[in-house]
């Protein structure tokens, strides 16, 4: 595992580097958002640890720039911004996880490893076909009616979850735990927003709808007559 740490607090970045090194994980440090963007664009990383409050380019802007070029690169926000609105914003911008300072290094390490596992496709599956939708897990490629669909990393993971649970109604809580590894907060709509965006790409321009709302339960993917 190779990690990019984008953190302007010197003591925190040194603590992170030391802890990662003790677990034989190499890391680079950027002390501001612009340097973080340069390293992310010019080097290969398995995961990025990203603060929100950064000089020159804040974490919100940085994740947007990274996602435009690396939609599947795992990103974990590590920040003191702990209110619900900030958490939701982080996930909506494409974060894979969100950890609030102060933090335990053991939890951070566990979350990093979980992110890596979640973002590894099942290479045993060559393709999944549902009506005219074809998913290629190993290549992160999705087509419908021979049209290539441009999905974000989270949308791809969400679609893959539905496809592997075809015909099975999934609750918002289950979806949050499987795709975001978070406990669902009923005061947020991050799950519904993510599914709406996925539906806009998967179903909106096609006659047969694949993702359906199950009232009082959640959502299900199935082909209905």
Give me the secondary-structure category. Answer: alpha/beta
Q: How many domains in all?
A: 2
What is the top-level CATH class of the largest domain? Answer: Alpha Beta
Mean pLDDT: 89
Rg measurement, Å: 18 Å
Strand order of the largest sheet: 2-1-3-4-5
Could you spell the SSE succession in H and E letters?
A: EHEHEHEHEHEEEEHEHHEE
Corresponding CATH superfamily of the largest domain: Response regulator
Tell me, what's the shape? elongated
Binned strand content:
15-25%
In words, what does this structure look like?
- The longest helix is centred in the middle third of the chain and has 14 residues, at 105-118.
- The protein is elongated and about 60 Å long.
- The model has no long low-confidence stretch (mean pLDDT 89).
- It contains 8 helices and 12 strands.
- The strands form 3 sheets. A 5-stranded parallel sheet has the order 2-1-3-4-5, sandwiched between helices.
- With 225 residues, the protein is an alpha/beta fold.
- Helix 6 (153-164) packs across helix 7.
- It has 2 domains: 2-118, Rossmann fold (3-Layer(aba) Sandwich), CATH 3.40.50; 128-221, Winged helix-like DNA-binding domain superfamily/Winged helix DNA-binding domain (Arc Repressor Mutant, subunit A, Orthogonal Bundle).
